[in-house]
Amino acid sequence: MYSWRRMRERLFKITVFGVAILALTPLFHLIIVVFINGLPTILEAGLEFIVDLPPTPLSQKLGGIAPSLVGTFLMTLISLPITIVLGLFTAILVTEFPKSRFSIVVDTVAKSLSSVPTIAVSMAVFSLVVVLVNTIPELRAFLNPAGSALTGSLALVIIALPFSYTYFSTFLRSVPATYKEAAYSIGMSRWAVIVRVVIPVVKKSILVAVLMTMARIMGETAALFFTAGRYRNGVPTSITGPVDAVPLLIFDYILSPFEVWHKVAWGATLILLLFYMLIFSVVKIVVKEVKLV
Amino acid sequence: MPKSKRDKLFFTSLIPFSISLLSMLLLLVIILLFNSIESLSAYGLSLFTRTVWDPENGVYGVLGPILGTIITSLISVSVSLVLSLSLAITIAEYLKGYLKKIVSSIVEFMGGLPTIVYAVWASKYLVPFLKNNIMEPLHASLPFIPLFSCRPITGFSTFAAGVALGISTVPYVASIILEAYENIPLIYREACYGIGATKYEAIKTLLSLAKPAIIAALILGFARSLGETTIVAVTIGNSMTLTPCLFAPGYTVSALVASQFANAFLYQHAESVLYVSMLVTTLISIILSLYASKLIIDWRSRVVV
């Protein structure tokens, strides 16, 4: 009896460990193969990989992904600040007045919005732009129905907003109530407490939320399908014209039948992965320094 | 509503920011609905009972993609249940100190990894691997089971898409399970060990206590899989046929939209049909995730207090 229980204990531990390792294996394999396939592309193309245009399907030269990099950069630049401001202030409202009916509605809406498929957002934003341009022709100068950095950014904000909101509200809730009570007791107003007590306490956590939101925006693919425009013939010069994004380029090229495009896709995937690794390491270094009571 | 005057001012000054969230969801649903009306009035319910995509003759039916979406999500949830449950138990029960931190960070890293990276990996490595090591042996040994009845030709199939999705949702499901599991009050654990339970027996008891939260995590994983596009679009093989066999190429709603939406404006009703199928997916996804988060909240107030 006793030995059976002990054996079962062992068996269970081995199984759980084995499956847990199995669950992590894809990640390690993925990182290794992205390096194996992406590194040769980048080494072969050299610096041109980040400054040159993508190759034609039958070209001998590898070219580069400059239009996509600039497009991703532009759209991140536009959508990140908007997302952060909207997400942070919404989170402040909900965490300061958790019992208000309005806050409960906002919280539920954020949960719903985060479960909307990203491609649905892409379709809806596309349709919105078409309707807007058709009813008010003057808008055509700003919103290109064929896609633009602005339109793409709008889709990205809708995707990233519930994400950043969840991060912010988690961090804001983690501020010990005693801190706030102490501040109120010396007669500070609500705004003063937020600005001078709450925000300083969670300063670094906010940085983490900003970085993770940025990673989310940079890596988003489906939201840009019908909103960005896939412009790859040159580096975009305006935010009202069509642009490309790194994930979009990878998606299109990996599905194509051309060998040279597959190579470029691997190189672009490596660049995206490296960017993500960089952001994640910064996050980890910042988190290490965060000491909440 | 807050009571004091200054609080009220503070509250109202923040409202515009939150309205943005509300209006986005409202606008999204209205646009999807608005674009759906055209084809719903043209085809009615026959849209959901057939599997056809024939823009030249204007005949459509999205039963196949909708079933495909549900089946891939079911496979995805089963895969991620096994993997993430073990992962969560390992992190919570067997790892300590530095190692625990590292493994938790790895899971976090996986969770934030852009899906396109998973998609590239899955289409180039996972699909051939599954074809050679799982699909072909299953087909060879059990061809009389309808699920395995067809020969996996390219490997790009409903099954491959489901497994790829499952792997990508592991960190998401695992983190929800882990959070719930670690929130179980210590007294339950102490009670288990107090009556002489072994670790396995204690884990079993604690897991049964966390069951509603685990179910909620699975529902959330399912809802997320429903709408996932990139990974599915490159692994499912894009085919508009309805077959019980998991090894044949298929379609999910999002993969259908990804491949057809760009040209849909050329044909009457085609765009609207895509909007309808996406509306259905979106609504299912929203309802499921709201239900699951309610499950978690209820569970927390009952067990964690």
List the helices and strands and how they pair.
The complex is a heterodimer of chains A (293) and B (305).
Chain A: H1 2-45, H2 48-51, H3 66-96, H4 101-114, H5 118-135, H6 149-173, H7 177-185, H8 190-201, H9 203-219, H10 246-255, H11 259-289
Chain B: H1 5-43, E1 51-54, E2 59-62, H2 63-94, H3 97-112, H4 115-141, H5 158-183, H6 186-194, H7 199-209, H8 211-227, H9 230-235, H10 253-264, H11 270-304
Antiparallel strand pairs in B: 1-2
Helix pairs in contact in B: 1-11, 2-5, 2-8, 2-10, 3-5, 4-5, 5-8, 6-7, 8-11, 10-11
Walkthrough of the structure:
The complex is a heterodimer of chains A (293) and B (305). Chain A is an all-alpha fold and 293 residues long. In chain A, 73% of the residues lie in helices and 0% in strands. With 305 residues, chain B is mainly alpha-helical. Chain B has helices spanning 5-43, 63-94, 97-112, 115-141, 158-183, 186-194, 199-209, 211-227, 230-235, 253-264, 270-304, and strands at residues 51-54, 59-62. A two-stranded antiparallel ribbon of chain B has the order 1-2. The longest helix of chain B is centred in the N-terminal third of the chain and has 39 residues, at 5-43. Classes of the chains: A mainly alpha (293), B mainly alpha (305). At the A-B interface, helix 1, helix 3, helix 4, helix 5 and helix 6 of A face helix 1, helix 2, helix 3, helix 4 and helix 5 of B.
